[in-house]
C-alpha cells in the first residue's frame, strides 16, 4: 500500500507517513469487512444466474432493475424481512455463532491476498500457510451449524463435510507445496515475483489439482454433497432462516472470490501485467484491473463447470480425491523436485521447459493408469455378466 500512502501524503503534506499508513489500513480493513461482502455477493449471484441461464438456454434475472441487475438487492431485502427461527432443541450459542464464522473465515484470508501492486493487508512470510490455516474456520462453521441445529439431516450433511473436505484438502495442499517449492517462498508477494512465466504454463497439473480441489472446498457442483438438496433436504443449514441463512451464502460467494484470487496469485501471476507497478497510483490501479480480470475469468470457469457436470456420487467423489488427485499430486511433487535439483537446468528458460516436460510426463502416466484401471474394471464386469448368463 506504499503507493497509496505516498499519494495521501502528497495530497496532505502536513500528514505524517505513519498516520497516513494507519488511515489506509483502517479504510482497507473496513472495505473488506463491510463493503466487499455486499458487492461480491450481489455481483456474483447475478453473474452466476446469467451464466447458468445461458448454459441452460434461459434468460435469467430480468425483472428487478435494468437487465435484472437489482435481483441481488431484492434477495437481500427478502432475507432481511424473513422471520428468524431458532429450533427449540438447538444449542443457541453455537447455532448463532456458525453463520458469522462462515463469513469471518473468508474475510481473514483477504489479509494476505495481494489484490494490486503493494496493496496487501500484511505480506506474511508464511502467507500461503496462513491461508490454509484460516480456511479451516469455514469447515468448523459448517460442522457447528450441523451439530447445533439438533436435526439429523443437518448432522448428516456436517459428517459429509469431514469426509469431503479432508479428502480434497490434501491434494490442494500438495498443489500449494509444488508452487512453494518452485517459487522458493511462502510469501504471497514472492510467489507473484517468481512468475516471470505464470505457473499455469509450467505447472499445469498442479493448477488442475488446485482448481478442482478448490471447487470441492467451496462445495460447489459437481462437489456439492455438503448440501445435496435431493438427498438431505437443504444440507447443514436446513434449520436456518432469514439473515442467518443468508450469511452462509455470503460466505460461499466470498469464498468463491477468495479461492479464485488465491489461484490467480499462485498460478496466473497475480496482479502482474503490462504497466502494473507500485510506483504510482495508476500502476496500482492497472494491477488491480489485471488481478480482477484473471480472478473473474477463473470464477466464470467454476460457474461453467457447475452448469455442465452432474453431481458426483459420494463414493466416486472420495475415490476421485484419494485415488486420483492425491497420487497424481505426489507424483508431480516428486517430478518438480527432481527438475529443480538437476544441475544442467540452472537457467530459468531450461527450468521452465523442464517443469513443463515433467508435468506432461505426469499427465501421460496418469492417463495411462486410468485407462488401465478402466480396462480392468470393464473386463471384471464382462466376466461377471458372462458368469451370470451361464
Question: What do these coordinates show?
Answer:
- The chain is mostly helical and 390 residues long.
- It has one domain (2-389).
- The protein is 73% helix and 0% strand.
- It has helices spanning 2-11, 17-55, 71-81, 92-107, 127-148, 152-183, 188-193, 199-202, 204-218, 229-232, 242-267, 281-308, 314-341, 348-389.
- Helix 2 runs parallel beside helix 12 and helix 5 (127-148) packs antiparallel against helix 6.
- The longest helix is centred in the C-terminal third of the chain and has 42 residues, at 348-389.
- The model has no long low-confidence stretch (mean pLDDT 85).
Describe this protein with a few key phrases.
mainly alpha, about 75% helix
Rg, nearest Å: 23 Å
Largest sheet: none
Helix fraction bin: over 70%
Structural class: mainly alpha
List the helices and strands and how they pair.
Layout: H1 2-11, H2 17-55, H3 71-81, H4 92-107, H5 127-148, H6 152-183, H7 188-193, H8 199-202, H9 204-218, H10 229-232, H11 242-267, H12 281-308, H13 314-341, H14 348-389
Helix pairs in contact: 1-2, 2-11, 2-12, 3-11, 4-5, 4-11, 5-6, 6-9, 6-13, 9-11, 9-13, 11-12, 13-14
